[in-house]
Design a protein that fits this description.
The chain is mainly alpha-helical. Among the domains are: 75 residues, no CATH class; 39 residues. 70% of the residues lie in helices and 0% in strands. It is built from 7 helices and no strands. The protein is elongated. 4% of the residues are buried.
Length: 268
C-alpha cells in the first residue's frame, strides 16, 4: 500500500520531499495532511539512519508558528518609519555640516585672494568632489565664488594694465622732452663747432708758410735763450751764496780784530 492511502480513505495528492506538512485546520475544513515523507514511518518519526531537519524543530516565523498578534504589522511599519526618519535626519545633518565647511572654505579662499576651484574647495572643506557637483547649493556657491574670483582677477589685470599704460605714457612723454632738449643742445654744439672751425680757417688764412717758419725758428731760439739764462741764473746764485759765506767770515774776522784792538793786554 502506498503512503497516504488508507484502507478505504480518499486519495491525497502526493507531497514533494522536504516540504513541511500543513498544520491541522490551516487549510480549511475537509483538507487532510500529507502522508509520511521519505525516510519517515507512518507516524512521521524519522526512520533509522536519518536526522531530523532543523526547520522542523525551529519553524520560521510566519510559517507554522500561528497567526501574528494584533497590531504587529502597524508596529513594524512605525518602527521602519522611525528608522527611515532618523537616517534622513542624520543624512541631512551631515549634508548641512558639509555645506557649512564648504562655505567656510570658500570664505577663507576669498580672504586669502586665492584661486577658487572645485578641487581646492574639496580639499579645504574635507568633502568629496562628487558632493560639490551633486549638491545644488554647494555647486551654486562654488560656481559663484569661481565667477567672482575670475571677475576680481580680470579687474586686477585691467588695473595693472592701466597702471602700466599710464607709467609708459609718462615715460614716453619724458623721453620725448629729453629728446627735444638733446636735439636743441646738439644743434647749439654744431653751431659753435662751425664758428670755431671758421675762426681756425681765418687764422690759417692770415699766417703764411714763411711766417709760420720764422715764428717756429724764433721760438726755438727763445727756448735756447731761456735755457742759457736758466744756467746763468743758477751760476750767479751759487756765486751769491759763496760771496755771502765769505762776507760772514770777513765779518767774524773784523769783529775779532776789533776786539784785539780794544783790549791789547788780553791779546798777549
Amino acid at each position: 500500500m502506498r503512503p497516504g492511502h488508507g484502507a478505504g480513505g480518499p486519495r491525497l495528492p502526493p507531497q514533494r520531499p522536504g516540504r513541511l506538512p500543513r498544520a491541522p485546520g490551516r487549510g480549511g475544513p475537509g483538507r487532510q495532511t500529507a502522508g509520511p515523507r521519505a525516510g519517515e514511518d507512518q507516524g512521521g518519526r524519522p526512520g533509522p539512519g536519518t536526522r531530523p531537519a532543523a526547520h522542523r524543530l525551529h519553524p520560521r516565523p510566519g510559517r507554522g508558528a500561528g497567526p501574528d498578534p494584533p497590531g504587529a504589522g502597524h508596529r513594524g511599519h512605525a518602527r521602519r518609519s522611525g528608522e527611515t526618519a532618523a537616517a534622513l535626519a542624520a543624512r541631512r545633518r551631515k549634508t548641512e555640516t558639509a555645506l557649512q565647511r564648504a562655505h567656510e572654505a570658500i570664505a577663507r579662499l576669498r580672504r586669502e585672494k586665492a584661486q577658487v576651484s572645485v578641487a581646492t574647495v574639496a580639499r579645504r572643506a574635507d568633502v568629496s568632489r562628487t558632493f560639490l557637483y551633486d549638491n545644488s547649493e554647494a555647486r551654486t556657491a562654488v560656481a559663484t565664488a569661481m565667477a567672482e574670483a575670475d571677475e576680481r582677477r580680470t579687474r586686477m589685470l585691467t588695473d595693472q594694465d592701466d597702471e602700466r599704460e599710464a607709467t609708459w605714457r609718462e615715460r614716453a612723454l619724458s623721453a620725448e622732452d629729453a629728446l627735444k632738449t638733446a636735439q636743441a643742445e646738439i644743434l647749439g654744439q654744431r653751431t659753435r663747432i662751425g664758428e670755431l672751425l671758421g675762426q681756425v680757417h681765418d687764422l690759417e688764412a692770415e699766417w703764411t708758410e714763411e711766417a709760420i717758419q720764422q715764428i717756429t725758428t724764433e721760438n726755438t731760439i727763445l727756448k735756447r735763450r731761456v735755457r742759457q739764462l736758466t744756467t746763468d741764473n743758477r751760476t750767479l746764485d751759487e756765486r751769491l751764496k759763496a760771496a755771502r759765506s765769505n762776507l760772514r767770515f770777513q765779518d767774524r774776522r773784523v769783529a775779532d780784530l776789533e776786539a784785539r784792538v780794544t783790549n791789547p793786554g788780553s791779546a798777549t
